[in-house]
Amino acid sequence: MPKKDGVKSTSKGRGLTDKQKRFVEEYLIDLNATQAAIRAGYSKNRASELGYQLLQKTTVQQAIEAAQNKRAERVQITQDDVIRMLLENIEVASGKKAVIKTEIRKSEDGELVVMILLNLFMNPLR
């Protein structure tokens, strides 16, 4: 008799169970197999082991890769883009870089006005 919270095989090795699909969705949140297993409804006591087992399954690996590719296509952003933005935020927060924002608005009399906003963040530790 299979264990209640074990990683089940699907019929003839095709597809994923509903719980495995949920694991894939949860895994994409933070890439933490243990927490994904818990959030997907697997036993907390065995989550680490089950998360590892799930990541070893080819069908789960393929589902994770497909979901990551689908998300990358949907949001049109790469890991390099994310790292670049994080580094830019660090530079702004540390005072090494100014924030420049351009806004175009209409004045009360209908004329276009270009506003350039410059925010300088001063590092209090300097």
Notes on the structure:
Helix 1 (18-30) packs across helix 2 (33-39) and helix 1 crosses helix 4 (58-75). It contains five helices and two strands. Helices cover 50% and strands 13% of the residues. Strand 1 and strand 2 (112-119) form a beta hairpin. Mean pLDDT is 83; it is low at 122-126. The chain folds into two domains: 11-75, Orthogonal Bundle (Arc Repressor Mutant, subunit A), CATH 1.10.10.1400; 79-119, no CATH class. By secondary structure, it is α+β, with helices and mostly antiparallel strands. The protein has a two-stranded antiparallel sheet. This is Terminase small subunit. It comes from Avibacterium paragallinarum (Haemophilus gallinarum). InterPro entries: SPP1-like_terminase, Terminase_Gp1_N_sf, Terminase_ssu.
> What is the total number of structural domains?
2
Radius of gyration: 24 Å
Low-confidence stretches: 122-126
**Ends apart, CA distance between termini:** 66 Å
The CATH superfamily name of the largest domain is: Terminase, small subunit, N-terminal DNA-binding domain, HTH motif
Helical fraction equals: 40-55%
Find the count of extended strands (DSSP E, 2+ residues).
2
Number of helices in the DSSP assignment? 5
What features would you highlight for this structure?
single chain, 126 residues, alpha+beta, Arc Repressor Mutant, subunit A, elongated, disordered C terminus, viral genome packaging, viral release from host cell, Terminase small subunit, Terminase_ssu
